Amino acid sequence: MNNKSYQAHHSSFGAYASFLLGKIGQGGGFSLSDVRSPNKNIYIGYKNRMMNLLPFANLDFGNKLAEFGLEASENKNDEKINLFNEDSIEREMKWASDSWKAGDLSFKIYSPFDKVKDIDTLTKEEKKLLLAPGFIGEITLDNSNNPGEAEIIFGMQLDENARLLSDNDEFSLLGGAVDTRYGFGCEASEEIQENIDWMTLLEMMDKKSPLLNKLGNEVVLRIKVKPYSKKTMHFAFATYQGGNITSGIKSKFAYTELFEDLEEVMEFLLKNKDYYINICDSKDKELEESKLNEYRKFLIAHSTHSYYANTELLLDKDNKYLWVANEGEYRMMNTFDLTVDHLHWEMKYHPWTMKNSLDLFVDRYSYDEGVKDLEGKKYKGGISFTHDMGVANMFSPKAYSSYERSNLSGCFGYMTAEQLVNWVLCGAVYALNAGDNEWVNNNLDLFDKCYESLLARDLNDDGIIDTDSLRCGTGAEITTYDSLDISLGQARNNLYLAVKTWAAYVCMEDLYNKLGKNEKAMEMQQKALNLCDSLVEKFDVNEKYIPAVFESGNESRIIPAIEGLVFPYVIGDKDAVSEDGRYSKLVKVLKAHLDTILVKGICLDPVSGGWKLSSTSNNTWMSKIFLCQYAAEDILNMDFTEEEIIEWDRVHAFWQTVPCNEQCATDQVHSETGKDLGSRLYPRLVTNILFMK
Amino acid sequence: MNNKSYQAHHSSFGAYASFLLGKIGQGGGFSLSDVRSPNKNIYIGYKNRMMNLLPFANLDFGNKLAEFGLEASENKNDEKINLFNEDSIEREMKWASDSWKAGDLSFKIYSPFDKVKDIDTLTKEEKKLLLAPGFIGEITLDNSNNPGEAEIIFGMQLDENARLLSDNDEFSLLGGAVDTRYGFGCEASEEIQENIDWMTLLEMMDKKSPLLNKLGNEVVLRIKVKPYSKKTMHFAFATYQGGNITSGIKSKFAYTELFEDLEEVMEFLLKNKDYYINICDSKDKELEESKLNEYRKFLIAHSTHSYYANTELLLDKDNKYLWVANEGEYRMMNTFDLTVDHLHWEMKYHPWTMKNSLDLFVDRYSYDEGVKDLEGKKYKGGISFTHDMGVANMFSPKAYSSYERSNLSGCFGYMTAEQLVNWVLCGAVYALNAGDNEWVNNNLDLFDKCYESLLARDLNDDGIIDTDSLRCGTGAEITTYDSLDISLGQARNNLYLAVKTWAAYVCMEDLYNKLGKNEKAMEMQQKALNLCDSLVEKFDVNEKYIPAVFESGNESRIIPAIEGLVFPYVIGDKDAVSEDGRYSKLVKVLKAHLDTILVKGICLDPVSGGWKLSSTSNNTWMSKIFLCQYAAEDILNMDFTEEEIIEWDRVHAFWQTVPCNEQCATDQVHSETGKDLGSRLYPRLVTNILFMK
Fold first, then answer.
1. Over the stretch A557-614, which tens digit does the pLDDT of each residue have?
2. CA distance B594 to B581
3. Residues with Cβ < 8 Å from B637, sequence gap 6 or more?
4. Which of A54, A597, B260, B596 could lock onto A603 through a cystine, CB 3.0 to 4.6 A?
5. E strand or H helix at B390, and its extent?
6. How many angstroms separate the CA atoms of B175 and B568, rounded?
7. Do residue A247 and residue B168 have CB atoms under 8 angstroms apart?
8. A290-691 — its CATH code?
9. Where are the domains of chain B?
10. Which controlled-vocabulary keywords does the entry list (chains A, B) (predicted)?
11. B179 vs A405: CB contact, 8 Å cut-off?
12. pTM for this one?
């Protein structure tokens, strides 16, 4: 991991707010109800003989001065500032932290996360610890070898106008904020000087007395460090979005019930800093001590950071909690085909959020609609679920997503079949792994309805969905792989979706067995076996692969054929995914398929060597690569060498840290260059939690 | 008034939100907690044989298509759209409305305002009518002569993501909104089709069925109009900023206690549309029927629109109302040297807002500080008030403004003396004209303190303030005219401020007389007479003017020497400002002064002919020109010809509608060209309410 220049999210649980930092020269800052970097100057460093700063500021003072009608020649301060270059910095992205070392300075941001018990069972204090919208930053200056006094410099460019925290005399805090919404602060102390101005860093260079231009937008703290000493300071980074924040369903941030305002959040964070640091240290250690290679460790850490930046816990008018995982740059809410990928993370850390999403899909975002065959003949359909629940804090109306539209066969088309399968998979995994019997009992009829709906979509009774929802109008259904080519983009008669459909039957088989409903379990097994046979029949024995789409002579080779194997596996049904189990024929064929296609020029990119989901598209998705790597390694037991795996992981980590380094965790990349093609600042890459045993 | 292309604010009382429209080609849209135009496309027009739109949209579809990776050649729709040009439009900016006519279309925005009784005495329903954050738009299509069906087109580009109002089934509204914060809507009807997409106007050109891309940011309504008929539609334009909105003093918008959300506001506005339209019609008529020339009518209307866009009524944690007039592009809150200019407006329409500001200045934004003479020797000082109460919804700390800083002698210096005089003037005018005896009795000690403070600032006992506050440090006090040259910028020994100081003594003289405190009244009269003598002594009998600053041989000629005359006049003390009254010497000298300087090349710009506040600066301020025109015409009875006055007014109106036409009411302009130099989107120009008899 030589690359240190990449933007990363830093955030807390459910606040839909983050602080971005990490790409050299890009700046960063706070993002609220969004995940994009404002790319403002961040000033973190120290002053001894000269000013030394981490390279997260644009110090083109000539331009800055010109904005204010002054001449650049008036000031040569930029010559007195050393911006550390990449070579002189150490960076460590860990699971729950991110830190930089340069010269005598170290700076670390803690992004706490851990297992969270059902929110309804938490005490108020536990809720406050969990939901405080912010986190801790830690800065240390080692002035041990310096006979002179030094200063820690800590500050940032905020919005057009900002304020000093000392202006609020109800609290004993120093730092900067933008009105009621966000800021950074530390405990007040005599040794800290607050500065605010338009070009604070520039103006304060040769000054002793504080800058106090209250119209300014840059707040910079100077903190004295005595000769021959070492000093560590802690800062709270906090946000506060008050009032009703969502339309459609009226709700506010859950933390607004617990904290009055921004300053109260900061004070709480600082008071409990040890709690948060301990949590982070323990998560960092856990990942560090895992047997994973360094690239995988990095990918897991980076993905986790972007996942939490997208999380949002709301409280509706009836004091009911609502969980929203937002969709990166697209800001769609609880996109179901992301939910099914977040499943593995949420089941491990907070299964109640999965339940929360599944329930809202049932209560508000389900619908019942007929289907049509290729000739347009109409048939009875059944229940399914919307693609998402809205966009940008706007819950969409009942039974409708913000994404899906009629009369399309590509992007923005309906994903009716895919989301139906996703509910069954998420529901069964939650039912079997969370031990929530009450939920299972309440939702048995839903599984029945879903089963009926699956049957209705399979006209020729081979198990494979071969219809499109009538909601498509003149168009056709698509899958989550909307921006890939038809090999993964078309839902009807699609290999990827067929294997996931098989997995849905297997998971229901297991669920009914667990419930003692053996007859129903057998029925599901019959459907799964039937589908298994159908898929095996599609196997091209000469070319040794299954074509991506069973229509129009399609010959694409796709890796996500094996995605569906993950679900039976995670509910512990090893037999279902074993070469010797009851579905051995399918497992063997999928293994042979993967073996055939996972070669350079087919599903390994001939230039980069990275995984390429489809032989006919250069658009490849990190979240799905991780999922399929897991299926290949742990389920299919492919005979990859350790070197092969490390090289793949190295390429995938390189993509995130170099070509995608401005966009935090990025899902869609070009398989040749790794350049971002979409799905930037994305939560979905946490599928790689599966790598953690 | 030939110019029709200028941006204007449209808003309601105290919502600190507006809808901007009017500059051709610039677009417009909603501005919240700000007054700047987002310059988004606004689509208002109709479709019969072709699409006809008012020219408030940028229809460069080539560029738009390129953003989405499409080629311009794919679409030639721009050829089917007629954007009316300036010549084919009629525009009428009236006092409480703004309207456009073009082709078969008329569109009108109503911005209601009227006298407002003390907010604490209003019923809930009266409060709702007053504070509903929004207003009515009216569109009429005259299809009487058309044998075919036509469509009214009404829509706009909103934020990155938007929603349809029909998505919320609790209300029967159609239109568009951005999450919970702002939007436009009308009553639902079968004849209206809602469209949402990224390039809605472009995409819907050749379509019959509605566009329903819920990820879109453009909402456009199509409203059927039958052949040979005429149709009028009403829209609500509404905003909603929930939660605590200010820091420093924690407060929320007063309307949030009355309305739950945006839709409730819209529904209320539409239900009460006749009430609002009647108010506006009546105000429009009142201005229309006044004897003022067309330029003055326009200037009053335009200024009123920008004033209300800057108003903000808050409710603090103790349910106390707080009034804030924000400062245009600078966003400072209750800037006192604007308050004293808003005085005339607020005394006429809502004197309780003036009281509210004065009280907060006393309670939180007053301070007591010593003074220094030119040599730096320190003396006892006295009470004064801060320049402002904060910026951008951030109340500044007790006793400090966001603007003032130590050790400066120009912009951002202290305005201690000026704000002291301003409190006395506002306080006395409120006390005498509002008939609020309780307030007068509560504040008698404040007038005493202010009197003592005035005395303390006059070391040589000639009545003229000749000291600087110790808060200045090494700097010196400035006046409101911060960006002009020293002729108006320096507070010490300044003619403009000296006449205002005289006015302060006169107003206190009248106040004490009214209260039967004759001894005190006589004391004030003595101070006023003394100051009167001192100023008369400064009159240069050869050159027939009083120099702007009584230091360093200053020879600037300034119009605002006469500004102070307004205050005794508005409290009805005609004697004080009469050539035959007790201060006749001063009044005569000021008249002679104005007569001398109001010539081309001195205080009339030699190129434009407009009023130029200072002979030595090209920066001239509209708000102050109006005030001084009023003093010259109504108080000094200068023998201007009707033609002269109309020509001056024509120039001043031209400045607003051509060189400043992107910036709504603009205060600081270049006297030669009328180009904006600062103070854009400004509330202060309502000094011209004095023109309305």
1. 999 999 999 999 999 999 999 999 999 999 999 999 999 999 999 999 999 999 999 9
2. 19
3. none
4. A597
5. strand B390-391
6. 51
7. yes
8. 1.50.10.10
9. 8-285, 290-691
10. Hydrolase
11. no
12. 0.95
